């Protein structure tokens, strides 16, 4: 396994937003995917969607309704690894404000954004590529990455100072989303047949890792040749994605097809990450997803990653290891795991699969 921290990008960084403004009918070769990886334009229009689950009963006193919601979540986690949640307790106004604030950020003049240009040492700041492999084919997106937790990594100076409300909005949004993640961790623990606090404790308590990646997908003159984000599973614990309210783009792999998610109004899209796959001994699986782009509308999404504390070993829960289902993974800290991924960039599910115990 690779252990050296990458120091710098292997090539000069080009902002996809600038390319989008200067390319009218072609895109640079660096963004053209091999034919088998391109979004298939011949896919039939598809009605299917990931499950949409109303969480209202989790906040009420009706035990039967509560149990029914838990059962729906359990089925979605097992069958899809992805679900949409509505009536989740985060205010729709805050969700809209978070999206709008970040849209304003990406529309600031380039020099305002460049002062936050990131490096692969920590990825914090304004970025345009994942992975440091020289000559890699790149994705059609820019992003902003920041730490919300643990408090030791939270650094307002690394968050944008503009638009003026940005830091305050991120703080409020982070607070509400963390509360929701803590609630979901209890639901997942109970659904796995574990103590309610099991997953939270396995993540190292409440000062966990939480970070935000805001993805900006500019318009693309040749969307059939590229992807906004290559297929990957999320390396962390659980992700709460706030998708664009107008423009679809997220696709989730279901067997051999890619399902385009149709976001419900003010829903969060929740997905299981590799660390919960490992802790659940693969009862729940992280699922590959990717993003397609389009020629007439930009797209913005906020991915909030809720992760274990970075320096504790993560291994299958003993309660879920049996003679019939032995431990599928060897223990590894999230720091070690993430470093491996940050070197390589998005690679489907090959990262978590490579942790499988030799048998
Ligand atoms: O933009 C999206 O809809 C998905 C983003 C995503 O998968 C990610 O940030 O890991």
From TrEMBL:
<dbReference type="GO" id="GO:0031418">
    <property type="term" value="F:L-ascorbic acid binding"/>
</dbReference>
<dbReference type="Pfam" id="PF14226">
    <property type="entry name" value="DIOX_N"/>
</dbReference>
<feature type="domain" description="Fe2OG dioxygenase">
    <location>
        <begin position="207"/>
        <end position="308"/>
    </location>
</feature>
<dbReference type="InterPro" id="IPR050295">
    <property type="entry name" value="Plant_2OG-oxidoreductases"/>
</dbReference>
<keyword id="KW-1184">Jasmonic acid signaling pathway</keyword>
<dbReference type="InterPro" id="IPR026992">
    <property type="entry name" value="DIOX_N"/>
</dbReference>
<protein>
    <recommendedName>
        <fullName>Fe2OG dioxygenase domain-containing protein</fullName>
    </recommendedName>
</protein>
<keyword id="KW-0479">Metal-binding</keyword>
<dbReference type="GO" id="GO:0006952">
    <property type="term" value="P:defense response"/>
</dbReference>
<keyword id="KW-0847">Vitamin C</keyword>
<comment type="similarity">
    <text>Belongs to the iron/ascorbate-dependent oxidoreductase family.</text>
</comment>
<dbReference type="GO" id="GO:1900366">
    <property type="term" value="P:negative regulation of defense response to insect"/>
</dbReference>
<dbReference type="InterPro" id="IPR005123">
    <property type="entry name" value="Oxoglu/Fe-dep_dioxygenase_dom"/>
</dbReference>
<keyword id="KW-0611">Plant defense</keyword>
<keyword id="KW-0223">Dioxygenase</keyword>
<dbReference type="Pfam" id="PF03171">
    <property type="entry name" value="2OG-FeII_Oxy"/>
</dbReference>
<dbReference type="GO" id="GO:0051213">
    <property type="term" value="F:dioxygenase activity"/>
</dbReference>
<dbReference type="InterPro" id="IPR044861">
    <property type="entry name" value="IPNS-like_FE2OG_OXY"/>
</dbReference>
<keyword id="KW-0560">Oxidoreductase</keyword>
<dbReference type="GO" id="GO:0046872">
    <property type="term" value="F:metal ion binding"/>
</dbReference>
<dbReference type="GO" id="GO:0120091">
    <property type="term" value="F:jasmonic acid hydrolase"/>
</dbReference>
<dbReference type="InterPro" id="IPR027443">
    <property type="entry name" value="IPNS-like_sf"/>
</dbReference>
<dbReference type="GO" id="GO:2000022">
    <property type="term" value="P:regulation of jasmonic acid mediated signaling pathway"/>
</dbReference>
<dbReference type="GO" id="GO:1900150">
    <property type="term" value="P:regulation of defense response to fungus"/>
</dbReference>
<keyword id="KW-0408">Iron</keyword>
